């Protein structure tokens, strides 16, 4: 029986290439830690009470206590999730009241373009709002439809049309890979006072990864590494001195970024350092080109490989995802970077 040739659109290939399954592993671990923290409180409270009243804990008492803790924990999660979904919807309603939807502006083309991209990436169309904020930035939010991207007015002013496309695809990636949905599930753990400080730090490891993944989709879809890097540089250092981020500046920042103290400091940031993002773009650009130069590989012939930031780039193994994931070039320690980043609203 003759096998049909695989029909991959540009969007499908980009989505498969940029996908990093280890992101979900890190997200799972994050949820696990949060569950323990949450249930741990209820369990401790229960046993503390029992110990006070009975002077000890029986086996039956322990089982009942555990069940009560589980039920209370689930109720807490359900209520918190409901609040998170409500807040997300309120955010969108406020956008509708306080900002301009891009299709009513001179940038209407951006909405048309994003609709085409959404079809290509096989994801829901996104609303794009422009809000008054001179800082170049953007973020995505939503839980199920509708999903929205908010562009700061500074982005409109200082970014070229092509750079705006980079930012929009980056934000669309947060929706496509369900980073925005997952962020809503994280809300319950991040609204509890005291715990939320540790919670944000813990969630940061996953969030920073999502930024790399969103950058990677922008690169894989748009295919212009210099353009993607220019957009990122403008977002991080501003438009006036963006052109001054030359090789010497990058090498110095890269060198410092590898120092232990710098790496530790980054764990308190919801985005990866700029130089790490730039290095990732260069790294994957090389990898994507290497993949294009080679015939499509089958799953059985492709080992798991390590990306420069330590993430595991597992090759697709499912028959439905036999898109060529790029072979990874020689490990470049100098250009490697560390951990990754997010929020309810995933900023660029
Ligand atoms: Zn982002």
UniProtKB/TrEMBL annotation:
Ranges annotated as biased composition (Polar residues): 294-308
Biased composition (Low complexity): 313-323
Record field: transmembrane: 25-47, 59-87, 184-206
Keyword Transferase (UniProt): no
Known EC number: 3.4.24.-
Top enzyme class: hydrolase
Pfam families given in the database record: Peptidase_M48
GO MF entries: peptidase activity
Gene3D superfamilies documented for this protein: Metalloproteases ('zincins'), catalytic domain
Keywords in alphabetical order: Cell membrane, Hydrolase, Membrane, Metal-binding, Metalloprotease, Protease, Transmembrane, Transmembrane helix, Zinc
Highest taxon, organism lineage: Bacteria
GO biological process, one term: proteolysis
Occurrences of domain Peptidase M48 (ranges): 108-284
CDD domains: M48_Ste24p_like
Record text on cofactor binding: Binds 1 zinc ion per subunit.
Necessary cofactors: Zn(2+)
Region annotation (Disordered) ranges: 294-348
InterPro entries to which the protein is assigned, alphabetical: HtpX_protease (IPR050083), Peptidase_M48 (IPR001915)
Iron recorded as keyword: no
Family recorded in the similarity comment: Belongs to the peptidase M48 family.
Name of protein: Protease HtpX
UniProt organism field: Candidatus Southlakia epibionticum
Gene: htpX
């Amino acid at each position: 029986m003759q096998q049909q040739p695989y029909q991959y659109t540009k969007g499908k290939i980009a989505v498969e290439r940029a996908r990093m399954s280890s992101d979900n592993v890190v997200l799972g671990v994050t949820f696990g830690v949060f569950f323990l923290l949450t249930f741990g409180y209820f369990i401790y409270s229960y046993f503390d009470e029992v110990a006070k009243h009975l002077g000890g804990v029986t086996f039956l008492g322990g089982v009942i206590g555990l069940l009560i803790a589980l039920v209370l924990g689930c109720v807490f999660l359900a209520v918190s999730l409901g609040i998170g979904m409500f807040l997300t919807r309120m955010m969108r309603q406020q956008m509708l009241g306080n900002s301009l939807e891009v299709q009513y502006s001179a940038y209407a083309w951006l909405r048309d373009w994003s609709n085409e991209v959404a079809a290509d990436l096989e994801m829901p169309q996104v609303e794009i709002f422009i809000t008054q904020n001179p800082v170049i930035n953007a973020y995505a939010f939503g839980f199920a439809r509708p999903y929205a991207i908010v562009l700061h007015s500074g982005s409109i002013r200082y970014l070229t049309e092509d750079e705006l496309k980079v930012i929009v695809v980056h934000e669309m990636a947060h929706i496509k890979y369900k980073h925005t949905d997952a962020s809503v599930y994280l809300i319950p753990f991040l609204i509890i006072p005291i715990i939320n400080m540790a919670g944000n730090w813990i969630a940061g490891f996953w969030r920073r990864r999502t930024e790399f993944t969103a950058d990677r989709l922008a690169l894989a879809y748009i295919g212009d590494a210099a353009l993607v890097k220019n957009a990122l540089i403008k977002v991080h250092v501003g438009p006036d001195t963006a052109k001054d981020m030359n090789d010497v500046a990058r090498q110095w920042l890269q060198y410092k970024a590898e120092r232990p103290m710098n790496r530790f400091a980054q764990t308190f940031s919801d985005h990866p350092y700029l130089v790490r993002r730039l290095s990732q773009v260069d790294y994957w650009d090389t990898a994507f080109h290497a993949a294009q130069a080679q015939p499509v590989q089958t799953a059985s012939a492709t080992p798991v490989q390590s990306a420069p930031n330590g993430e595991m780039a597992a090759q697709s193994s499912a028959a439905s995802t036999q898109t060529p994931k790029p072979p990874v070039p020689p490990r470049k320690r100098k250009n490697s970077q560390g951990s990754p980043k997010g929020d309810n609203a995933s900023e660029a």
